[in-house]
Amino acid sequence: MKAKKYLMSIICVYICYLTHGIQAIILSQNNVNFATQWGFDMSDPNSAAYAAGLAAVSTAVAWTGFGKFISVWIGGEISDRVGRKKLMIGGAVLYIVCFAGFLMTKNAMVASVCGLLTGIATSGFWDASGYPAVQEAYPAAPGSALIGIKFFVSLSGMVYPLFVVQMAATGNWKMNIILPLAMSVVCLVLALAAPFVYDDQKKAASGASGDKKNSVQAEIDAAKAAMLTKPSKFVVFLVMFYAFLCMAIMYGAQQYTKAFGLAVCGLTEMQAAGMTSIYTVGSICAVLFWAFMMAKLKWNPLKVILIDSIFTAVALAGVLFIHQVAIIYVAIAMLGFFAAGGALQTGLAVVQLFNPGPKGRNTGIYYTFMGAASYLIPVVAAQLTKASGEANAVYTLMIMLLVFAALAILSSLYLVGQHVKIFGKSALGK
User: Fold this and answer.
1) Is 175 exposed, middle or buried (0-12, 13-18, 19+ CB in 10 A)?
2) Are residues 117 and 176 in the same domain?
């Protein structure tokens, strides 16, 4: 069985994304400590120096996002050319370099360069190779394999903040950097040792006779042969555009639900902070649930994203219009479950279903749409805040997320109809 033979490659990818979950929040979780290390006076929260320090950290975060955006598409193309293993190794090496940079540098500009490189390492190297790798290693349920990535990202997102609090209590905050640095070394060792399906197939094809068909191309041809008709360009666009809609909702909910709770719902600081925790718990529960549904019950990934889209819209409506603490908490848990519980990863499985082709290329295009959303949401939020104040801004933003959820429903319903036309059967069956 392929999944057993390539179990180490699956473990390698999951440990890499456990490390990535820390990288994604390391700057924000240690913002004051980093700013102090970079030479800013952070003793007075009301001072200009304090604000400048936080701004420097935000700049480093922005450079991380920029690195992701510019690298993921080309990374997918490179992954298909050179294989998954080399990019997994390269990403681990870059992570080691960057975490070492975070640990030692006393310069905000150097830290920003490290942020840029971690973004490239994550999307240009790991996203471009890791996502295709787990699909190839577990072809029986590729959607479940992809959702596993989300689980490990969410797991580190829950555990790492607690670790930060513990290190703050002991006064040894640099352990917050040493931990992911050590994990990056483990990632490198696993990437060096693990076999990868695509690389083995590529090697076998290169050593075969000239008339022997490449096994990867054979897999693509078989997927296309299962189609009764070729999907239109609009269908291909929709499955890619889902990444934009899903990421916009996920990012907006992660970043602004607390502000919405405080500014619009009248929640206390503790109640509003609890919204983020509940959101994360909901996402982890969803990962386990959907993995079972797709692996054991063989649910079509299109069926999953349709359900996700419908209940995401319901959850957002609950948050927007029913300002009671109990209802808000239920709605936030639902939002975490359906919007952040692997919906983005499941969408990638839908891409491969409707647009069979090199998985690296498909991942690159899909995540470019995702990157566009991660830039758009904070830009829109900043402009709305300047124009109308925080309360009106976050309310308008939540309305926008609800509109995106509605568009996701309409898109999914259209794709369900196209699935019948293209494959001759409904995606909503078992």
Assistant:
1) middle
2) yes
Give the CATH number for residue 112: 1.20.1250.20
- The torsion angles phi and psi of 264, rounded to 5 degrees, stand at -110, -45
* Helix (H/G/I), strand (E/B), else coil: 227: coil
| Closest among 387, 211, 402, 194 to 316, alpha carbons compared | 402
The model's pLDDT over 169-227, given as tens digits with 9 standing for 90+, comes to 888 999 999 999 999 999 999 999 999 999 998 888 765 544 445 666 777 778 788 88
What is the percent of the chain with per-residue pLDDT over 70, rounded to a whole number? 95
Assigned domain for 71 exists? yes
Q: In this structure, what DSSP letter does residue 42 have? A: -
Segments forming the whole domain that contains residue 415: 228-423
Model pLDDT, residue 176: 95
CA distances in angstroms from 389 to 204, 264, 272, 393, 418, listed in the order given: 61, 12, 19, 6, 43
**pLDDT (average), residues 390-411:** 91
What three-state secondary structure class fits 134?
helix
CA distances to 77, 290, 323, 376 from 391, rounded to whole Å, are 43, 35, 14, 19
Nearest of 295, 331, 337, 313 to residue 399 by alpha carbon: 313
- pTM for the model stands at 0.74
Please tell me the distance from the alpha carbon of residue 212 to that of residue 201, in angstroms, as a whole number: 12
Q: Taking CA 213 as the corner, what is the angle to CA 207 and CA 214, rounded to the nearest 5 degrees?
A: 65
* Pair 252, 389 in one domain: yes
Same-domain pairing of 177 and 252:
no
